[in-house]
Design a protein that fits this description.
This protein is mainly α and 187 residues long. The chain has six helices and no strands. 68% of the residues lie in helices and 0% in strands. 20% of the residues are buried. It comes from Phainopepla nitens (Phainopepla).
Length: 187
């Protein structure tokens, strides 16, 4: 959407493209499906952070779909999915006990770069934009609050990633670990 319509970036509040709208609709459906999957498969207790994140995303995206405003902000936030590719590769390598430590090491650094480029940078930009340019009432206030909560979650996840991959000696004791000795979101 951004590739084909880069002019969208000049109007975060009212910019519109059909592909961006469809992307937000599709992503909303994904978040609803994943939420129901977590609930119906009785994973709510271990995945409560995902449920909070999904509830925030669903409510924000539905408000964007209904009002037609801030569509570009949603598209920018969905850049995070690029980073998820490398987080998923990381998880799969850990689950398979990493047959190639060099592959894990390479992905570890790529993952860090992608985290900055596709999670932290868009999130920081949108937070700055909303705090500086968006009215602090109605939908703007709601979306700003959502962004600030997402900021806290992203920074918490980032600190976990850094501790796990770059500073393992700083990891906490065994509290909060599952039967394999690892907590999914930490490792």
């Amino acid at each position: 959407s951004l590739w084909h319509s880069p002019e969208l970036l000049s109007d975060i509040q009212d910019g519109y493209s059909v592909s961006g709208h469809l992307l937000v609709c599709f992503s909303s459906g994904y978040f609803i499906h994943d939420t129901l999957d977590i609930i119906f498969n009785h994973q709510s207790r271990s995945s409560w952070e995902y449920l909070v994140h999904h509830a925030m995303a669903i409510s924000a995206f539905v408000s964007l779909i209904i009002t037609g405003r801030f569509l570009v902000a949603a598209v920018l936030l969905l850049l995070v999915e690029v980073s998820n590719i490398f987080l998923t590769v990381r998880m799969l390598l850990k689950m398979s006990n990493v047959p190639s430590p060099a592959l894990y090491e390479a992905n570890k650094y790529i993952n860090l770069v992608m985290y900055f480029a596709f999670r932290l940078a868009p999130q920081a930009y949108l937070t700055w934009y909303f705090l500086r340019h968006v009215e602090v009432q109605g939908q703007g206030a709601f979306l700003t609050a959502n962004l600030l909560l997402l900021d806290a979650m992203i920074l918490m996840y980032f600190s976990r990633l850094l501790r796990s991959d770059f500073f393992p000696s700083l990891r906490k004791g065994s509290a909060g670990r599952d039967v394999d000795g690892e907590k999914f979101l930490i490792d």
